[in-house]
Amino acid sequence: MCGIVGYIGPRPVLPILIGGLKKLEYRGYDSSGCAAVTPDNTMLVFKAKGKVSNLEEKTKECQQPCTLGIAHTRWATHGIPSETNAHPHLSQSGNLAIVHNGIIENYATLRDQLRKRGYTFKSETDTEVLVQLIEYIMNIRHSDLATSVRSALRLCIGAYAIAVVDRRVPTQMVAARKSSPLAIGIGKENGEFFIASDASPIAEYTNRIVYLNDEDVALIEQGKELQIENLHSGSVDYEIKEVDLDLTMLDKGGFPHFMLKEIFDQPTVLKDCMRGRIIERDGSLRVVLSAVEQHKQRLVSARRFTIVSCGTSWHAGLIGKQLIEHFCRIHTEVAYASEYRYNDVVVDPDEVVIAISQSGETADTLAAIEIAKKHGAMVFGIVNSVGSSIARQTDTGTYVHIGPEIGVASTKAFTGQVTVLAMLALALGHERGTVDHEEYEEVLRELTRIPDKIDHILRQNDRIRDMARIFTYAHNCLYLGRGWNYPVALEGALKLKEISYIHAEGYPAAEMKHGPIALIDQDMPVIFIATHHRLYQKIISNMQEVLSRKGRIFAIVTEGDEQVRNMCAEVIEVPDTLACLEPLLTVIPLQLLSYHVAVAKQLNVDQPRNLAKSVTVE
Ligand code: G6P
After folding, report:
1. Which atom of ligand 1 is nearest to the CA of 417?
2. What is the pTM of this model?
């Protein structure tokens, strides 16, 4: 999703802007642009379709010194991806430039009113309307930039993170946010400042970050103290956070793609996720989550849990439901955040709403949190991105701690979220007395073995790559699983469609006979998750149904399985584990499979078409 970078200070601005945009590439975009102001008040604007490297080529010719600039990666919402629609957008006079993430919902009304006052528009975007509105207000009220921005934003309905510069004041920038993240970095040199959609473009320069809150407008002036005013409550006492982002975590570490690196990261990062939380003392294991310790009473007495999330995080939520119901015996619902926010939901004040999000910025999940809070529910966040909006807006929570995830298709975040959900369910179950001590320790012990078992599966990477070639010719695929592995079937199908553009569906295996069975023929691969557990024999019957329709079966099986192997074109073995932890293993071959299919099809694995890493619009 769109990304913003800005800089004001003594260093040459263009390399900082381009470098910053590259760090935000993971969010997904289709065009980019930047504006830089020279000390003699000229506004330079560069735009390019496609990759940031195209923009970089254009800026290379620029020899002028500039020390104020804003830049943007755009993911089209209003108007096609094109240079005209790319940001920054200029005001009618060319004095102001703006970059914007989000959507101004009443832009058409505002545009009509501005047109009546003689304004014309070059692009189809809502953003151009906003910059024209700021200029209009500036002209009629003779107000300064910050005041005009505040007045304009009061007239806007919707979501925004913006940065605005005025070529006549090359020492100043105004930034604001509502429902779309924006961070301000306080630099080390001569009163410099950085702004960005998240801390990653800023981290190499400073770790002192101020996160804007909703409806905050910041006046950023070189060499002066940062000033923040809220649209409604006036001057803000902001907090400077010291954020330590591990820069090495942003590199590909020798892998050809971030996605492959992140799949291979899983054994290490899951250990990080459990570190300090699963504790061994005198030979016995305990799980300690500080959020559970602090809010024990409320969590333990919850009458119901509702999990809200989107995409892969929603699939993790489906496993979370089973974990919580199994270990805590508390009724748990799982809702798409986008539906929850608009449904006439019944929220019990004794309920706990769990919001799961890798990025911590997903607009629908944020809106669902707001609804839950309005109804008096406690909101517990399971978030990866430290300091993100969801992390700040939840009452309490547990960070996933698996490091930044860059590949658009989520991999390590999924296993990290499931690991946190397992720890949470065990911690609460233990407190409630709904899990017996032996099982509690057994599951915790097995959880600590999962990283090594994943490592073992990853060693089959070459075999999975060879198998992937078969799938490059498929137009449709079916993923089937039951019980704990039904959400894994959904996740496997999502991974394949996201990056290989092959239509894939995940289904509970027994449900196949109620529709998808009609699609089965020799051309459609069917992938079963058929591990040795309670429903093993039932899954085998489902496989027979596919075989008798000449379907080709591929299966994820438990090591040593012979029965399923004999029914399949290919099998991938995973080590045996407890049924409730199986998703942490069975998903790994499916991640690798979709990765290799996309590579074989020569597609852009890390930034698939039309998708964004962080979906900050609804
Ligand atoms: C986007 C991403 C998915 C992700 C979903 C939810 O669609 O492409 O990979 O699962 O958003 O994101 P979140 O950051 O809230 O987990």
Report:
1. 16
2. 0.76
Return d(Cα 235, Cα 393) in angstroms, integer: 21
Is 21 in contact with 3 (CB distance < 8 Å)?
yes
Read off the pLDDT of residues 111-127 as tens digits, 9 standing for 90 and up. Answer: 999 999 999 999 988 99
The DSSP code sequence of 212-279 is PPTTEEEEEETTS--EEEETTTEE-----EE----GGGGS-TT-SSHHHHHHHHHHHHHHHHHTTTEE
Atom of ligand 1 nearest to the CA of 309: 15
Rounded distance, CA 62 to CA 35, Å? 12
Q: Over the stretch 467-509, which tens digit does the pLDDT of each residue have?
A: 999 898 899 999 999 999 999 999 999 999 999 999 999 999 9
The tokens for 191 are 């009163």
Q: Is 61 exposed, middle or buried (0-12, 13-18, 19+ CB in 10 A)?
A: exposed
| Distance (Å, whole) CA 256 – CA 234 | 49
Catalytic residue among 2, 66, 156, 310, which?
2
* Calpha distance 566→573 (Å, rounded): 13
Residue nearest to atom 15 of ligand 1 (CA): 357
Instruction: Identify which of 301, 303, 342, 336 has the alpha carbon closest to the alpha carbon of residue 318.
Output: 336
Residue 413 and residue 261 in contact, taking contact as beta carbons nearer than 8 Å: no
Q: How far apart are CA 31 and CA 3, in angstroms?
A: 11
Structure tokens belonging to residue 118: 């003689």
